[in-house]
């Protein structure tokens, strides 16, 4: 019984973790290449990257690599001073900060051929669900005006709930006093 509960909890934790951090394979089945003419800009635009997500570059390390570079190096395909270089052919890169992340293949000609990737990891403040409810509630506040009296009903019901126990207490007090009155007599 306890083991089942623990197993269920473990499953829940695993599912939560899966929903928190995603793994994105760059280029999907085509991977990281120049052959398939993958539009990596288009690929990135279909994803929403968050801090903690992982991007996976899969490629043949004989022909390609992955360089993380600055924006200016990305624009000019300048591979002279990469921030970091990955060469395993199966490189998982976890996104640890927000903003743009620029990558390209450092093999001569490949960046110019389009083997380049610009990921934008959205800012935590702009992505928190907390900022959404106030926006949606303010936008729906004119239609929700008729529901404000309805919203006042739950506010008045606690006073009813409070009066009920006090009435019950009064009845109990009356009963107790009657019982004591019986004992006294
Ligand atoms: Cu390449």
From TrEMBL:
Residues 128-156 are annotated as: Disordered. Residues 1-21 form the signal peptide. InterPro entries: Cupredoxin (IPR008972), Phytocyanin-like (IPR039391), Phytocyanin_dom (IPR003245). GO terms for cellular component: plasma membrane; side of membrane. Residues 22-123 form the Phytocyanin domain. Keywords: Copper, Glycoprotein, GPI-anchor, Lipoprotein, Membrane, Metal-binding, Signal. It comes from the Eukaryota. GO terms for molecular function: electron transfer activity; metal ion binding. Residues 128-142 have a biased composition (Low complexity). This is Phytocyanin domain-containing protein. It comes from Eutrema salsugineum. The lineage of its organism: Eukaryota, Viridiplantae, Streptophyta, Embryophyta, Tracheophyta.
């Amino acid at each position: 019984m306890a083991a089942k509960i623990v197993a269920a909890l473990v499953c829940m934790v695993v599912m939560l973790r899966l929903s928190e951090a995603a793994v994105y394979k760059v280029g999907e089945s085509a991977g990281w290449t120049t052959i398939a003419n993958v539009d990596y800009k288009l690929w990135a635009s279909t994803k929403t990257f968050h801090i903690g997500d992982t991007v996976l570059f899969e490629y043949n390390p004989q022909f390609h690599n992955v360089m993380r570079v600055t924006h200016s190096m990305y624009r000019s395909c300048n591979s002279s001073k990469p921030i970091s270089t990955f060469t395993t052919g199966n490189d998982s890169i976890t996104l640890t900060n927000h903003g743009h992340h620029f990558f390209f293949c450092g093999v001569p000609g490949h960046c110019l051929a389009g083997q380049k990737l610009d990921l934008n990891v959205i800012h935590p403040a702009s992505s928190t669900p907390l900022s959404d409810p106030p926006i949606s509630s303010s936008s729906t506040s004119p239609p929700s005006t008729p529901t404000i009296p309805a919203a006042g009903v739950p506010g008045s019901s606690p006073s009813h709930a409070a009066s009920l126990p006090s009435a019950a207490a009064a009845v109990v007090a009356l009963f107790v006093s009657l019982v004591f009155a019986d004992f006294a007599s």
